[in-house]
Fold:
Amino acid sequence: MKLTTAQALVAWLIAQRSETLDGREVPLFPAVFAIFGHGNVLGLGTALQERRGEIPVWRGHTEEGMALAAVGMAKATHRRQVGVATSSIGPGALNMVTAAGVAHANRLPLLLLPGDTFTTRAPDPVLQQVEHFGDGTLTVNDAFRPVSRYFDRITRPEQLLATLPQVARVLTDAADAGPVTLALPQDVQAEIYDFPDSFFEQVVHRLIRPRADRRSLADAAAALQASSRPLLVLGGGVRYSGAAGQAMEFAERHGIPVVETTAGRTLVPHEHPLYAGPLGVTGSASANTMATEADLVLAVGTRLQDFTTASWTVFAPDATMVTINAARFDAVKHGALAVVGDAAVTLGDLAAQLTANTPGQNKIRPLGHADVRPPADPPEWRAEGDWTARAVEVRTEWDAHIDALRTPTPGTPTYAQVVGVVNELSGPRDYVMTASGGMPGELVGGWRATGDAPTMDVEYGFSCMGYEIAGAWGAAMAHDGLVTTMLGDGSYLMLNSELFSAAFAGHPLVAVVCDNDGYAVIARLQEGQGGEPFNNFYADCRTNHAEPPRVDFATHARSLGCAVYTAADLGEVRAAYAEARTAARAESRPAVLVVRTEPSAWTEAGAWWEVGVPAHLSGRAAYEESKSRQVRYL
Structure:
């Protein structure tokens, strides 16, 4: 089959299929986000135009934004589908590096296809080319190497035959999932090669579920049986494995309290009697209390980021750490007893091992290869009864605290009150998002799961300002419930152009913009450690104006094609958000709700986060005290 390199790449993309967690077959690459330029418009652009009925192409308005939309799509599909983003060379390509960092930090698949300079070098230096005096092989696309799981530059058409299977491997592997970058020199995109027909036969990519080593399982079972106060921590890997049901069955059988990480939020029904809340700095005092008192931590599908572990001060110093993770890289961190395998099958195998270790049971119990559920007969080992009951006790206290924060008060609404309204009006299939500033602490700590499936995306691996809008656009394409994204004025100003992309394309979502006049959460960090207020709130920023201008967010959003609502108090927030939800669906476009928000009221989980505090600031003493409690598993 004689095709250009670009035509072959597009044909291969179309041939790739994916099996969802509920067994449906869908396109692995459901959408391409594109901004065309001289580096991709004739090669890849022509190939996409020729097959436009088979693979949708959506026009973005910033390269970073459209690539972030692809990331949001991957999260909303639980990593079972992958967004593609293509740009021209030079600044267009470099604009996508931030999105690659988001995908890399969050272990989310993303395929980036930046254009590149000519392999012949005949017209060098071409428009937008950066020349390196000491290395003629370098282009700006080499900047993707540190933020790509897999990087290649296609300099011959036939290289696709070796490269694309590796691309599929990385994008669909639970342990390696992350961004892939294929740099595409514009002359190579147009070259013709006789590709084998078999290369374009349909392939269905299914979730691979590797089983753990039996000896590691035995060690983990022994550690659990030696504990009396175990704590189960559920991370994003549980979501991507579709293992929430297995995790809760395991917890119920053994009486183990459960907490969630940021990436694992909404895995557990809020009212479950074993649920103690979200863990860490942006989590809950209830979960942090349980972590402090636990004598064993079983962490499943999490890389245990500093916000989850309170910079490694949230766990008891003598607690045993056991990890279950598909990626050995994450499993072995901090000297944990590492069990490497898929979350669903490994929890089932661990339950079987616990039963096999029970006195009077067969010590060599077959683990099987298909089932992921533990055996029906209950094991004898359980956590202490008082410990099991402690979960609902501490979470009830935290719920009362959140209820108090949500209670209507006169004047400017707080973050917690706005989150409460969105939470109360959201349905079981609706999806909520945020990424940066103060909102993650409000959403992670205060949200109550509305359904029986993961319905939250808090991008707090890279904490990328601007993801809130762009990622919501991608999520709106992939998720059948209404997507609501919550963000501050700083994130809105950082990257708002994909509101127009979503409006133009006809994708409904609701954006709740909380305007507190600056970077309030960083101002809190600055002043809370004894620093002088500087360059965060607008009142503390340098300007040549006696009365500097303010942004009219409502007018701006309206000019981008959105339905717009404003609210000045909590009653207006409730009414306006309800109308925004209706308008977004009815008009198939974004609806933006702008609300002035109290800048100094926060949901506090009572956990420490390590940042460098200079010796002359008043916060240094508290920093040193917390530093002395920092737990290291080495």
